[in-house]
Amino acid sequence: MTGGNSGIGRETARELAAHGATVVIAGRDRERADAVAGELGGRAEALHLDLGSLRSVRRAAGEFRSRFERLDLLINNAGVMIPPYGRTEDGFELQLGVNHLGHFALTGLLLDLVLGTAGARVVTVSSNGHRGGVIGFDDLQSERDYRRMRAYRQSKLANLLFAFELQRRYPGVVSVAAHPGAARTGLMRTSPWLFRFVASRRTKWLFSWLIQSEGDGAQPVLRAATDPGVRGGEYFGPDGWGEFTGRATRVAAAEEAYEPISSRRLWIESERLTGVTYPVGAGMLADGP
Fold first, then answer.
1. Catalytic-residue membership of 170
2. How confident is the model over 235-248, as pLDDT tens digits?
């Protein structure tokens, strides 16, 4: 899983390892990933992965393939949230590049292993922030006009368009999505001051109805990953008011997330930008994309 060395990713990794799974923690900070893997004992390994670098994504995929012959569960979890304008190593706007394009490339490079593993799943972690999002195909990299929240919403909508399109194209894999609601994680460190104030541990009792712990935020991801009743194309999040907090349940994404024309267009553009072309053959729809 990506981003398994902190936040809801670390909580997800701990739960999976505690129930017998061998977890590969893919993270940009190898030392932190090694440390979390060490905490989990023999049930975890670390893998260096920088989603802001397609070179790193390819190297990580190659390393994974050299170490493992199957992939039962891929959790696309890592992300950045509302940072100042920045670019990835490959020149992509930072949020789109890390949150969507890096995961798109990684999944494509490992998809044959997923398809070759019976019952395998791909879980893509999105956000409530996808609501109100628009894929700005005319300025996808926000070069003309960068607004932090708008770019974040775009990247999180892209996560859902990808997850649902992956299911359409490859019914041989269970592709689902999840969001943690509002969780108190390190993602908030680049957010506006009001977000940081609400997420502060010093104010957690005051805003317990609005924001939950990392462990609680991991529950929708864990349900998407492990519930035997999950079906491809489903989406999971908290059941509380506004889906900010609560128990993990099936939820509905914004209508835009299910739009097939936008998802196909984004898929084609993502292949062009990353240079990762998805495999044709086993597990794919008979008439192709």
1. no
2. 999 999 899 999 99
**pTM for the whole thing?**
0.90
Computed on alpha carbons and rounded to an integer, the radius of gyration of the chain in Å comes to 18
Token pair for 244: 């900010």
- Answer yes or no: are the C-beta atoms of 260 and 168 closer than 8 Å: yes
CA angle 197–201–207, rounded 5-degree value: 65
Q: How far apart (Å, rounded) are the C-alpha atoms in residues 187 and 95? A: 12
Residue 218's contacts (CB-CB under 8 Å, 6 or more residues apart) are 8, 9, 11, 12, 15, 180, 183
pLDDT digits (tens, 9 = 90+) for 139-166: 999 999 999 999 999 999 999 999 999 9
Task: Please calculate the CA angle 141-163-256 and round it to the nearest 5 degrees.
Answer: 65
For residue 114, CA distances in Å to 65, 71, 117, 145, 148 come to 11, 5, 5, 38, 34
Which one of the listed residues 85, 152, 235, 258 is annotated catalytic?
152
In this predicted model, what pLDDT tens digit does every residue of 214-237 receive, in sequence order?
899 999 999 999 999 999 999 999
